[in-house]
Design goal:
Met_Sox_Rdtase_MsrB; metal ion binding; zinc; Metal Binding Protein, Guanine Nucleotide Exchange Factor, Chain A; about 30% strand; globular; mainly beta
Length: about 140
């Protein structure tokens, strides 16, 4: 893994919109079916909106009909950190950016999706910035 991005809370607040800050830095969740990338099928790479680290590509994105963008794997396993999340009375696996430690969403397994990994990385659109492939 490359260089880690570390900023103060004040620096994050100054750089991010209130919604981005709430999700990325305070582990919030955007409302289902409201995110910019929920139904996007265009080719491209998805980067962390906070630090610009590469996280996912459209090749691993699939339609799960859950209300958030879904991917079956990150671009590289070490681009994300997986942590046990026991909030809200359940046990889930939180997904965080390995570069800046921003909250991205959660990953679920064994739900029966026809994907190579049988995993669903359920990621907040507001945590991502998608860029189309370079021309030429």
């Amino acid at each position: 893994m490359g260089i880690k991005v570390r900023k103060t809370d004040a620096e994050w607040k100054a750089e991010l919109t209130p919604e981005e800050y709430a999700v990325l830095r305070k582990s919030g969740t955007e409302r289902a079916f409201t995110g910019e990338y929920t139904d996007t099928t265009a080719p491209g790479t998805y980067f962390c909106r906070a630090c610009g680290a590469s996280l996912f590509t459209s090749n691993e994105k699939f339609s799960s009909h859950c209300g958030w963008p879904s991917f079956y794997a990150p671009t590289e396993a070490d681009n994300v950190i997986l942590l046990e999340d026991r909030s809200f009375g359940s046990v889930r696996t939180e997904v965080r950016c390995a570069t800046c430690d921003s909250h991205l969403g959660h990953v679920f397994a064994g739900e029966g999706y026809a994907t190579p990994t049988d995993q669903r990385y359920c990621i907040n659109s507001v945590a991502l910035r998608m860029e189309p492939p370079a021309a030429g």
